[in-house]
Amino acid sequence: MIKLNNIVATYTTVRGQVDAVDGVDLEIPSGTVLGIAGESGCGKSTLLKVLYGDITYPLSLSSGDVEYGIQDAQGVEITTRNIRDHWFRRIAYIPQSSMSSLNPVIRIRRQFVDFLDPDTDRAQVLEQVRSYIQQLDLPPEALDAYPHQLSGGMRQRIMVAMATFFHPDIILADEPTTALDVVVQKGILLLLAEIQEEMQNTIFFVSHDMGVHYQISHKMLIMYAAKAVEYGDSSDVFGRSLHPYTKLLTESLPTIGDDHLRQGVAGRPPSLWDELHGCRFAPRCPLATDICRSVEPPMVEYRPAHFAACHHADKNL
Amino acid sequence: MTSTTDVKNNVATPATRADTGYRQRLRLNLRLRLGLIILAILAISSFTLPFFTDVNPSEQGTYMKNLSPSWEHPLGTNTQGQDIFWFLIFSIRNSLMLGISVSIFVTIISTLVGLSAGYIGGWYERFVMLITDSFITIPVFPILIVLGALVRGRTSFWVVGVLLVIFGWAWGARTVRSMALSIREREFINMARFSGASTFDIIIKEVFPYVYAYMVVGFINTILFAINTEAALAVIGLSKVEVPTLGSIIFWALNYNAMFVGQYTWIVAPVVATVLLFLGLFLTSTGYNELYAARRGQS
User: Fold this and answer.
1) Using alpha carbons only, what angle is made at residue A167 by residues A164 and A169, rounded to the nearest 5 degrees?
2) CA torsion A35→A36→A39→A40, rounded to 10°?
3) Which residue intervals of chain A are DSSP H helices?
4) By C-alpha distance, which of B102, B68, B105, B101 is closest to B83?
5) Residue among A89, A138, A186 minimizing CB distance to B7
6) How far apart are CA A22 and CA A226, in angstroms?
């Protein structure tokens, strides 16, 4: 069980401080694939940074912490405080663009072993890597290549291989398929799902492609303007959504055979610089009433393990 | 897996491609080959020939004055009774030694300063760059003339080298810093950091391979700068002119009116040698640049 305890993540800028993640409070069962969706600037990537423990200036954690529900070799609980010591061993990261995430002037195999402890036997690790990448449908020769000699899909597979080689408990994936065409994208998604099934890691999967989430995520977290607005099993969130924002999001997805003109969500998310009162979605919400504009809705468990932050969520029950 | 076949076909051949790349790397381009040949001839001859003679070329009056070129004195002798050929050989050797040692220090200092400033950033960078920029804005040559005039005669040949290092490192440091600055923001640096690498590891293993090609070229150019500046100082008599260098030989030739006396070899030979040396260094530097570009796949 991974616990996010009321996380407030703040960026310090010249204009002042802004909370990019504002009070996210969640419990995620281990071994789930959690999809995180929301508009650009809603705090998805910042939340991932906090989860990874990469909290460096200008980002700071104003309150809250993450308990990862795992212990290190000494039996000490791993939390935000000490997660850095377990980077790439217990928690791994798959970046958005594999194109720029591999050093173009160094061969792949060196990038695999460069940052191992100095006393490890590199040749032996490389042999393991060689057989491991074959499991991921990569040719063993790919290790001897420079990144530019590989295709985009292969590079992303290399990134997946790097991230999963040590069997980490937690994998963070920040839109790992955005730069790829749909066929390769599907291959990568299936690969991730396969690895997850085998290793039972917890995956945090950020994407604004709802179709991708539908394919891979067990649970969904919908974020809006730095807040979590809905959290639950994917089937619930997609099929019986409680929050009007989620509803509008899923309704905007096309389905085959339905030739209705799709409606986007009118308006724009509020600026986090403004003084925000009440529900942050209220200005764009078709159901908004006076209470929405003045009182901030709490996250409430309307169905078992299905949360939403909306005053009118019960209307959707 | 859906894309298995697609991936397998694609892989065609990183291995074979790497092989042809390797062969290409061995096939040096024309410039590099010419440059290396010129440098090799100059370096080998000037470093080995002095072992086969007990002549001290700086000693005056060893031979008859102003002899024309002959079998014994391939370039004749000068007005001071020195053998011009041997004086030239020692000059090339000394100039090369000075250039290479100055360049080694300059390259090490500028790379260390530039990489650390660019990658670490913050107040450290500001402080280091303040010093670097101060050195860049100081006009090197006039300062060297003043310093040369001050220490003239009381200094050794190597003090000139130290002065060149002190005033030579700043440009390189600034260039390396700007490269490090841009590399620091690339995603793969983040990935290296995320895999738990220390700052030192990242600088050495991720940033350095990027800067390395520039360093080779910079190294050669600094040799040029050092030889050039020392020669310029020597020609106007502000280096240690008793030590044979490409500059001091011209200084003496001008001083004794070699042209007027008719000892053309005295002044033409060092000029030709200097031009050849610079040509060799220049060809090597641009040739290496080209080679490195080819190795990266013309990117």
Assistant:
1) 105
2) -110
3) 44-52, 98-101, 108-113, 122-135, 152-164, 182-199, 210-216, 234-239, 244-251, 290-294
4) B68
5) A138
6) 5
pLDDT value for B152 = 66
pLDDT in tens, A92-115: 998 887 678 888 888 898 888 877
On whether the pTM is more than 0.90, the answer is no
Q: Residue B189: enclosing H or E segment and its boundaries?
A: helix B187-194
| Alpha carbons A122 and A116: distance in angstroms, whole number | 8
C-alpha distances in Å from residue B39, one per residue of B88, B182, B247, B277: 15, 34, 18, 7
Structure tokens at B240: 């240690």
Residue A60's DSSP bridge partners are A10
Helix (H) or strand (E) holding A147: none
- B193–chain A nearest CA distance, Å: 9
What is the helix, strand, coil percentage profile of chain B, to 5? 75, 0, 25
Cβ atoms A160, A191 nearer than 8 A: yes
DSSP run (H or E) holding A78: strand A77-79
Domains along chain B with CATH numbers: 97-299 (1.10.3720.10)
Q: Which residues pair with A222 in a beta bridge?
A: A37, A230
Which tokens belong to A191? 């690969």
Ramachandran class of A257: left when φ > 0, alpha when ψ lies in -120 to 50, beta otherwise: left
pLDDT, one tens digit per residue, over B236-282 is 777 777 888 888 888 888 888 777 777 788 888 888 988 999 999 99
**Alpha-carbon gap: B18 to the closest alpha carbon of chain A (Å):** 7
Please state the ipTM of this predicted complex: 0.74
CA A236/CA A221 separation, integer angstroms: 11
- Residue A97 and residue B205: Cβ atoms within 8 Å? no
Write the single-letter amino acid at B173: A
CB atoms within 10 A of CB B116: 20
Beta bridge partners of B83: B77
Q: Please state the φ and ψ torsions of residue A273, each to the nearest 5 degrees.
A: -75, -25
Q: Which residues of B are less than 8 Å from A137 in CB distance? A: 1, 3-4, 7-8
Domains of chain A in start order, with CATH, are 2-98+169-316 (3.40.50.300)
Tokens 């339905």 appear where?
A258
**pLDDT tens digits along B141-158:** 888 888 877 876 667 778
A-contacting residues of B 172-191, CB under 8 Å? 186-188, 190-191
According to DSSP, the residues that pair with B125 across neighbouring strands are: none
Chains A, B: CB contacts under 8 A, how many? 106
> What is the DSSP code (8-state) at residue B81?
S
**Considering CB atoms only, which of A96, A137, A139 is closest to B1?**
A137
Of A150-164, A187-201, A209-223, A257-271, the range with the lowest mean pLDDT is A257-271
Contact B84, B73 (CB under 8 A): yes
For every residue of B92-151, which 3-state class applies, written as one string?
Answer: HHHHHHHHHHHHHHHHHHHHHHHHHHHHHCHHHHHHHHHHHHHHHHCCHHHHHHHHHHHH
The mean per-residue pLDDT over the stretch B27-51 comes to 86
